[in-house]
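queue> holo job accepted (zinc ion)
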Amino acid sequence: MKPLPVEPASVREYKVVTTKVWCCHLIPLPKESNMFPARLTACSLASFLLLGLVTLWPLRPVALAQRADPEAPPAQWTRISDFDTQHLALDLRFDWPTETVHGTARLTFKPVRSDFRRLTLDAGQPMTVLEVTTESGAKLDFQHDKAAEKLTISLDRGYGRSDTVTLVITYQARATPPTGGLFGVFGTGLTFLRPTSTASKRRYQIWSQGETEYNRNWFPCFDFPSDKFTSEVRATVETPYTVISNGRLVSDTDNGDGTHTVHWRMEQPHASYLLSIAIGQYRVITNEYDGIPVQSYVYPDRYADARRAFANLPRMMAFLSTETGIRYPYAKYAQTMIAEFGGGMENITTTHLADNLLPRAHEELDNIEALQAHELAHQWFGNLVTCRDWSEIWLSEGFATYFEALYMGERFGTARLRAILAEHHATYHQAWNEGRRRPMVTRQFAHPDQLFDAYAYSRGALVLDMLRFVVGDEAWREGIRHYLQRHQFQNVETGDFRRAMEEASGMGLDWFFDQWVYRMGHPVFEVTHRYDADRRQLTVKVCQVQKLEPASRHVQTEYFRTPVEVEIVSAQGRRQTVRWFVEAQAEQEFSLPLDAAPRAVRFDPQHRLIREVIGETTPTGQLRETAGAGWWDCQHRHQHSPQTGLSARPVTHRRCNPLLSRVVFPHRHSQHCEDEGHERTDFTR
Ligand SMILES: [Zn+2]
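queue> job finished
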């Protein structure tokens, strides 16, 4: 999914607002930076000693650090289930005046233990369960605990692991208003939209939003990503309305009474949160990719705009099929415009897109193009392979964000890709500087919605770009294909991805995933160099000056190890790039034969690493300037703007305080420069 602002905006504005959405509307994570003083005054001596232990011994297991924090939420583990859902068939009718769905759910499952006598499903508060029967119609006792959102059904006998059981649950469910949930705009189950006295032009629509755990509000299921099943949806609606759901269209039957029944079947297993429905008055734009139907359901009065905006969808499917090495894996792909929604949601085979993001004829298409690529990329990352539990959500969002950027790079050139990644560096550093700090994979969260932040999206994408830098393009492609092929239609965790990449590259990558995925933070490199004219040798000294956070409940990396590129510009202006391996230690020196003192030494010039850099030096060794993430952002944006098509404004760093802004607030610096439209100064000369 991808949260976007309610009002469409330009590329630059949209990115900034997106960041704000992440910042403001999520349930805020505790700010570790603010915790330390509070704890000093309030905590017991024991806690203080524990903190001291963590300080002195920063690489202790997570559990110790967790215990040191009395405010830490309990660890969230993969839910245990004693059954395996095989198939879910929903039969639905809708009552507009009461905003209620009347449903029958035929649920087929296999117990995973013997003498299985009680089935417990998730069933939310908007739901009223009317009857539960066996497949042959025998009534079963049940209990619906609305507060706990659990439906417990007593079976007619004990079943075993070799049994396949089908139950029929008759229920009704009220709509849930499209507020709350992710970012406050995504909906939490089923949304009914109708014209009202204050909104007379509102369209009639019904749509669902399942991620993270909201589908339980309109059908009973095991509502957690670890259980995959096939599904089908039959929906009966008044004739003018179109029904869009997952998978293949089986039939559309006119009932002769002003209604029709539309039947969709999803033949490959998927997680519960990806099941969806959208009902409204639509016109279809039909296309195809490699024989697969590609449909966009759009408002008839926005047909021309939609045709223009959605024209590249087959091209995106071709790109992602090639880039992942796996052909688009489902029977169809659809996009549906829905109202009063906040971005895009990658329901399986059937993405929902906020209607107010559709550009009008005079507006540029970049945002909607990127959004479509993001949701389409999820059909591979998130839908074909699905994180086993929410702590691993970067396997969805980081990948969708990165492949969206790759698509934009393919479309508009490498410079655009680097510019987009520079934005993600900025977003990540902004979160970091504002005290929102965590490892990408953490089990410490109060609600899974909290995890859809700069770490899942921006840092996730950047870690993938770094991994590609580490293993090389060829192994990267092979690893992605291998990962998808091995785990398709299954659940995954980061370890599965690591193993696939290790097998493809022949490299051990435990260190990479440990420091970038499971631990918090990034390196701050202080880079200096000196030239020895007698020996004709350049020596570059790389120090890691980042500090551990003693107050943090998260496990951290003291020193990072990583390959890095260093560009050396000779006195004559000739450039050469060397690749060195920085080890996990406080300082390290690299030497290189060189005929004369260099004009400049640039550390990580392509910005492939998540890092800050301090200390680009002149030939005399005098500290001349620093280059943190913000400076590189500026450099990327402004160097590349003619190619990327992004609006280019000249920038200078003269009026900025380079040390303060780059070291302390690297992102602020780039914003500052950009906002104030300074002239540009070349630092390295
Ligand atoms: Zn997404």
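queue> Residues 387-518 form a domain with the Neutral Protease; domain 2 fold (CATH 1.10.390.10).
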